[in-house]
Amino acid sequence: MIEIIIVAAGYLLGSLSAGVLVARALGLGDPRDAGSGNPGATNVLRLGGKKAAVLTLIGDGGKGMLAIWLAHAFNMIPSIIALTGLAAFIGHLYPVFHGFRGGKGVATGFGVLLAWSWPAGLAALFTWLLVAAVGRRSSLAALAAAVLAPIYLLLSPAPLVITLAMIPMAALTLYRHQDNIRRLLDGTEPRIGQRSR
């Protein structure tokens, strides 16, 4: 029974959209109705500046980490820890508190990954920073990090079940970035800090 509660708690934590909450608190309105329509840090940056973006990034990443720490605090087995992280990620994508209109999961997925395995998390962060610095496009950096994350986990000391949970997270990240992928292919994807077209 406690296992079900922990996984459900992971989903509920994930359902707290930092971008929506931060934007409302700063009087920016709902980020899902402006810019790219995504409540993530990149869109919040375009709408409200660096402070709002940093708060969104910390909030979304932090809830992913918190979900895993909660599972560890209750000494859950690796499969439940894996499911809790996946639940937090899905909660961000389809949040019960925000009409199931969520984000793309990059920051929350990173928070989960970092709490699952800090070496894999740091490798994914380095990948994001490198691709973002070269390509100047947040979506491209996120896609690269998501694709490589299962490989980083496989090479880390994390249990195999954690790697298996990362695979659908990576796939969902790609799915949620369909519009970005199309814009990347036709050269219209905004650069970091640039307003969406």
Automatic annotation (TrEMBL):
It catalyses: an acyl phosphate + sn-glycerol 3-phosphate = a 1-acyl-sn-glycero-3-phosphate + phosphate. It is found in: Cell membrane. It is an enzyme of class 2 (transferase). It is a multi-pass membrane protein. One of its GO terms (molecular function) is acyl-phosphate glycerol-3-phosphate acyltransferase activity. Keywords: Acyltransferase, Cell membrane, Lipid biosynthesis, Lipid metabolism, Membrane, Phospholipid biosynthesis, Phospholipid metabolism, Transferase, Transmembrane, Transmembrane helix. Pathway: Lipid metabolism; phospholipid metabolism. Its EC number is 2.3.1.275. Pfam families: G3P_acyltransf. GO terms for cellular component: plasma membrane. GO terms for biological process: phospholipid biosynthetic process. The chain crosses the membrane at residues 66-94, 106-131, 151-175. SMART domains: G3P_acyltransf (SM01207). Its main location: membrane. Probably interacts with PlsX. Catalyzes the transfer of an acyl group from acyl-phosphate (acyl-PO(4)) to glycerol-3-phosphate (G3P) to form lysophosphatidic acid (LPA). This enzyme utilizes acyl-phosphate as fatty acyl donor, but not acyl-CoA or acyl-ACP. Belongs to the PlsY family. This is Glycerol-3-phosphate acyltransferase.
